[in-house]
Design a protein that fits this description.
The protein has about 375 residues and is mostly helical. The protein has two domains: about 80 residues, no CATH class; about 270 residues, Peroxidase, domain 1 (Orthogonal Bundle), CATH 1.10.520. It is about 40% helix and about 5% strand. The protein contains twelve helices and seven strands. The strands form three sheets. Strands 5-6-7 form a three-stranded antiparallel sheet. Strands 1-2 form a two-stranded antiparallel ribbon. Helix 8 packs across helix 11 and helix 10 packs across helix 11. It starts with a helix and ends in a 17-residue tail after the last helix. The structure holds protoporphyrin IX containing FE (HEM). The site of protoporphyrin IX containing FE (HEM) has 25 residues, from helix 4, helix 8 and strand 3.
Length: about 375
């Protein structure tokens, strides 16, 4: 018996599993450049990073820990990818594999315009856009949108579809955190739909419901004032040029009456990343849609395209419009500026360990 326990203890050591006072097992998985920790209370798998769990000596609670070790060690082996053959720290190649897996599940002729890409971009943005530079909370770091109340925030309506879709990838690569998975999916979606290369880095950790940001941090499509996007995006640390670059993502996807209440796509190519949002916004005549729904605009000519009251603010305000004009004229500049602003968005509030390097992924 003693031999078995000693073997298990040294096996745990070999797996770099520090034992703690509380009978929790701190599990370390090396990501490409970051050390991620998860606390597993006894045998039960938890989403919690175990804020109460401190690393420490193994004197007290050793027996309890060893009792849990069989199941916990199995969990560790599974979550660290031992069973999938992965060894050592996660590399850019490992993340390229996750990238490829996301790219593989993106297209689906049965869904919307044939791709989950746009809703993945919206997931990455809503996971990140809750950041507050003053309180330094929110953002993608803790992947909190899978918890209530954040999952139920009105602005996130419909994003359960994107999160559920990505579960297939999560089960293939259980070692990746939700924040890393969702932001990487946002990168995959932009790149696979023909957008610019977005440098990305890993390092987000799974938090708990207690880490959810308060409701009301994301913008409201019904708000027509230029002050509204400024209030929201300045809070995150963006300037006017970056705000305009980001809103250009409305080239992609569409509004759904059962999610936001609004209806329709912004462009005729909602699954191709381009500067079309700016071109359409400037060149079409936009009239109020006559319907039994929230106020929105449709293009007078075809009635098929839409703009939110919030989108129209970008041509009403001269400091914003300057950038709308620039991006409508110069798609190359738009791609470069979008890549910079989008990377910044996805990284808001993530304390990457020093020396964490950007990764760039090859489109499939
Ligand atoms: C003033 C700022 C913004 C407002 C008010 C706004 C509002 C909205 C609304 C109301 C929808 C429709 C949701 C639905 O019914 O499915 C939507 C969709 C979308 N938004 Fe935004 N948004 C803003 C900024 C952004 C930013 C910064 C990005 C990305 C960088 C983005 C990307 C998208 C995408 C890709 C969709 C389409 C989703 C799909 O097809 O399922 N939005 N947005």
């Amino acid at each position: 018996m003693f031999y078995k326990l000693a073997t298990m203890a040294s096996a745990l050591q070999a797996l770099r599993v520090p034992l703690t006072r509380t009978g929790m097992m701190m599990m370390s998985t090396q990501t490409g450049h970051a050390m991620r920790r998860k606390a597993i209370p006894q045998v039960v798998r938890s989403y919690s990073a175990g804020p109460g769990a401190k690393e420490g000596g193994s004197k007290v609670g050793l027996w309890a820990v060893l009792a849990a070790a069989g199941a916990g060690g199995g969990y560790y082996a599974w979550s660290s990818g031992i069973f999938t053959g992965a060894k050592g720290p996660r590399t850019a190649e490992d993340y390229q594999k996750v990238y490829n897996a996301i790219a593989k599940i993106m297209d689906d002729s049965e869904y919307d315009d044939g791709s989950y890409g746009p809703v993945l971009v919206r997931l990455a943005w809503h996971a990140s856009g809750t950041y507050d530079k003053t309180t330094k909370d929110g953002g993608s770091h803790k992947g909190t949108m899978r918890f209530e109340p954040e999952s139920k925030h009105g602005a996130n309506a419909g994003l359960h579809i994107a999160r559920a879709k990505l579960e297939a990838v999560k089960s293939q690569f259980p070692w990746i955190s939700y924040g890393d998975l969702w932001t990487l999916a946002g990168v995959v979606a932009v790149q696979e739909m023909g957008g610019p290369i977005i440098p990305w880095k890993p390092g987000r950790v799974d938090g708990t419901a207690a880490d959810c940001p308060p409701d009301g941090r994301l913008p409201d499509g019904a708000n027509p004032t230029p002050q509204h996007p400024r209030d929201v995006f300045y809070r995150m640390g963006f300037n006017d040029q970056e705000i305009v670059a980001l809103i250009g993502a409305h080239t992609l996807g569409r509004c759904h009456t059962d999610r936001s209440g609004f209806d329709g796509p912004w462009t005729n190519s909602p699954t191709a990343f381009s500067n079309s949002f700016f071109v359409e916004l400037l060149n079409r005549k936009w009239v109020e849609k006559k319907w039994n729904g929230p106020k929105q605009f449709v293009d007078k000519e075809s009635g098929q395209l839409m703009m939110l009251p919030a989108d129209m603010a970008f041509v009403k305000d001269s400091a914003f419009k300057k950038w709308v004009d620039a991006y409508a004229k110069d798609e190359k500049q738009y791609f470069a500026d979008f890549a910079q602003a989008y990377q910044k968005l996805l990284e808001l509030g993530v304390p990457f360990p020093e020396g964490t390097k950007d990764m760039k992924f090859k489109p499939t």
